[in-house]
Amino acid sequence: MMTRTPLWTTAFLALAVAAAAQEKPPAQEKASAPQAPPAAPAAAPAEDLTNFIDFGFRGTIYTDGSDTARHQRYRDLRNGLAADALRYSKDTSSRRYSVEIDHAGYRDQRYAASFEEYGSLKASFEWNQVPLFFSEHTRALYTSPAPGVLRIDDPIQSGIQTLATTLPAVVDQAVPFDMRIRRHIADFRLNYLASPNVDLNVLVRQTRKTGSQPWAGTFGFGNSVELATPVDTRTTELGTTLEWSNDRGMLRAGYDGSFFNNHIETLVWDNPLRITDSSTSGPYQGRMALWPDSTMNTGTVMGMLKLPARSRATAYVSVGRWSQDEALLPFTINTALPAFSLDRGTADLTAHVVAMHYTFTSRPADTVTFIARYRTYDFENTSDPFLVTNTVSYDTSVSTYSPGRNHLFDIDRKTFDAELSSTPMPHTALRAGYTRENIGQTFRHTDTTKENKVRFSADLTGTSWLTLRGMYEHSKRTGSGFDEQVLDDLGEQTSLRQFDISDRIYDRVTALAMITATASISFNGHVTIGDDDREPTGFGVLEGRTRSYSVGADYVPSETVSAGIAYVWEKFGTIQRSRQANPGEQFDDPTRDWTTRVRERADTLSGSLDLIKYWPRTDVRFAYDYSKADSQYLYELTPDTTLPPVVQLPSVRNRLQTATVDARYYLTRRTAVGVMYWFDKYEVRDFATEPETLNSLAQPSFLILGYTTRPYTANTLVGRVTYFW
User: Fold this and answer.
1) Where are the domains of the chain?
2) In degrees, to the nearest 5, what angle opens at C-alpha 219 toward C-alphas 218 and 220?
3) Which of 423, 458, 561, 642 lies at a C-alpha separation of 20 to 30 Å from 715?
């Protein structure tokens, strides 16, 4: 693929360079490095040359079968001319201006500008694009005659319903397309110093997302479809604070607002298996609500006061209101089913949120520091219940809804944390901490959970060649107010425990060390052991195990040479128990129990070598990263099982290698040329999403998009010129 930088971008850059070349700004701090991958940071050859422009050509070659979308998931690496970076700033005795541009003209471009009037005003603006490239291998039978409407040609639906054809026989008519989303972010910030004691801060940010993303719709377990759901949303955020401060304290008042607008709030899609509505076989189309418009308005007050005995207290209070009042969809789109009215026509949902955070810090002695924190978060759903007499399942059948109403979810979280640290001798620190967290929630089978955590750590930095840190954490969570009826109403086993509220005991030990062998050589390492036990849970997560360690070394013999290498090993494991049973006698039969053991291991190796001016006028950088991860799912049955034998699934495997060689040569004090080679290789074996498994859009009656997990190998060569002024 070839891409040319837009003419307006090239002209803008040329004008910026020409204008800047006429001025010689005073010496100042170096500009930040360009952010466009994969170019290395541009280092100015002299301190008074802080502005630069970096442009050149990028070319990437992929091996056959490579998933180019996955390689470019959050970036745009198309071949062609690239204006990778521009940094320009100017200082006067009273003002500062700056302009930054990254990857101009591409989908991941960024533009920023700032202005500062010293001691009075700061203002900045940034416009940033973030691409999300899902797949270039997707295909669909659907077309979109209108936003939020996906249609299949009527002859296809009719032929499948009358058995004149089948879904596998028509999928070759699917049209290929790229599945992408692009996010546009505009961000404006203003800080105005009204007086030496009063600041005003303003934030305005708008984020727009457009494109399509994978979605799912279903007409029952035997008729599900993947859909390229259109995305067209806009989120506007407003924030302002007024702050007063002096030597004794600070007081700040603020407002935050967030306003979400979705231009496509309903999705309607054709049923690939039917052309007419039926009360038994289902409708000819499906309908679902997408993300509704919503608003959030929040007021905040924060204060800080310095107290005697080297103490300080801070308080933060936030009061907010969330609301959403979009029109509700009818229970069904199937005209063959009876229609019944809704309790109300719009959602009419509101919630009040109150958050508070109080902190007290004291240093009563030179060797002792005490910190106490108290946080609360109260989410109260103030909406009226929605009364429901009848409901519709899969758009095929009407049934009575026994609860008769929806359930409103509330949560109230309170957390107290205290920490005491002491330095009983030079270069030694001891810390002890305690945390208590109480969480209350409605519509959960355990309405209250309490967790107590203790932690201890010790640091030793008493020698010039050795630094040690050890940490131990222990926590215990218990629940109360257990209600079996909630699980029974859902058709679940009453001994099921959901992972985020189940009783558990958690222990973790961490040790870190750094050894400075010589002035130029140092070593570092860490070990972490974590155990999560959840007995006597009946069904759900029973236990979890975490093990990891790392070793690394750094070698810096001179200002021109630096090298480093690191290796990280991680292992994770969980055990979960379940029961394969239908309602009736099977439901309470322990011989139908089974467990899943999940074992995951990840290894990461990374290394780098920088040769900065090791040879005259030349900078060379080498970097290499390799990571691999393997996951295995082992299914086990009870000795007296009545279930059929288990067929084990193959392991999931991931491998990722990245290597770069970047060289830059300074032709003159103002001009440098560079070349970089970038190698990426991703290998994956995933039994659920690989092309060998999803080898047809019909699976067998499911209709999918062809979005699969694929490997890639990419070789990129970049040539560039950098001009400093």
Assistant:
1) 119-292
2) 90
3) 561
